[in-house]
Amino acid sequence: MLRIKSPYILGFTYLLCLTGFAQTAPGNPVAEPATLSSPAHRNPNERGPVLRLDSILAAIDAGNPQLQTYGNRAASLRATAEGARSWMAPMVGAGTFMMAYPRSYIMEERDKGSVMISGEQAVPNQAKQRAQVAYQRSRASVEEAGRAVSFNQLRAQAKQLYYEWLVGKQKQAVLIENQQILQTMKKLADIRYPYSKGSLGNIYKAQARLYELDNMLLMVKAEIDQKRIGLNTLMNRPKTEFFTIDTTLIIPKDLSLSEVTLIDTALIAGNRSDIRRMDQTIRSMYFGIEAQKAERKPEFRIRFDHMSPLDKVMPNQFTAMGMVTIPIAPWSSRMYKAEVKGMKYEIQAMQKERESMLNETQGMVAAMQTELRNMNQQLDNYRERVIPTFQKNYQTLMIAYEQNKEQLPVVIDGWETLNMSQMDYLNRLQDYYRMIVAYERELEK
């Protein structure tokens, strides 16, 4: 954390406390604003556990409703696969057999006909059933791979919210510290005003800057509240449930490489869940092809009929039949042949899409490495050059103001420049963290 500490400021603050100017100084034409860091602005109910990033990710993995849908879909497909082993329902019937119409002339008793009971059962081909079971189970594997894709997206969202919250806490600390510094400058101006050592306009200007800082703190607090709501939503917890984050988290900064390194596509394919899902989809389509090819195999059907004659002369009779389908007939084979041909073309298209995704990811990762290296250099420049230089400029102006050699507006301008550089650094740091999240999302780290 970048902090501004000057022995002159500390000395003047101590002097103000001793002389009773810690509150409003006598003759002060402008009252002190209530700050967000004061007890009046603290919410006593804002107490909750400190959640680490890995704990939040584990809660998302276990409780996010979007991820739970994939498990239910996979279970549904497995249940459907078990149903593929079933047989068709048997058919039974009852009726008449060779019975004469009413009012017909019957020459012999046997011409009265018979009462018939019939039963029929289709016998499925087990090879077809095994092919359908394998195909349905492979579709369940595709759903499970889809869960990993969704979790990678949710994990990236959680990381981004967590890192932005972390930067927000740093912004709060910088703003509160700058608020204390500006209050010290205003109190010095209040002390000098009765002795004609300062102008009333300077006091109002300092007061206006304090109000601006109050607004900035309100805005940062609102952003932190939004991040908390977002994380609670991802974890499927009450949206307003209060918790804090681990501000000691060290975000890895070894991603900004000294030179661009092309990641092997085999490594990308092994890490990326969307590539694995596509591999599972292609594998499932191969099972689908085998299931369609199994349609060439015949199916069987058996039928049994029992006849009881109405006369007392003829014996009971029966018929038993076995039937088999002929799916290789030209007029019936067109359907599964067309399905197999279409699936093969679909597999070729998905293989090309997989190759395109790997190529695009490899190029995107290389571009992100370049951007990360550039952003890291900019942040180093801010930490080592820009902010220290503005800090020295402000301290020099403050010393001159304490010695009555400079005016308060000039000191405020120097302080504003330092404050803007600090906030600009934190905004760039937040962009850097976002780039890290995007980089890790592409490689699924």
From TrEMBL:
GO terms for molecular function: efflux transmembrane transporter activity; porin activity. It is found in: Cell outer membrane. GO terms for cellular component: cell outer membrane; efflux pump complex. Keywords: Cell outer membrane, Coiled coil, Membrane, Signal, Transmembrane, Transmembrane beta strand. Residues 340-385 form a coiled coil. Residues 1-24 form the signal peptide. PANTHER family: OUTER MEMBRANE PROTEIN TOLC (PTHR30026:SF20). This is TolC family protein.
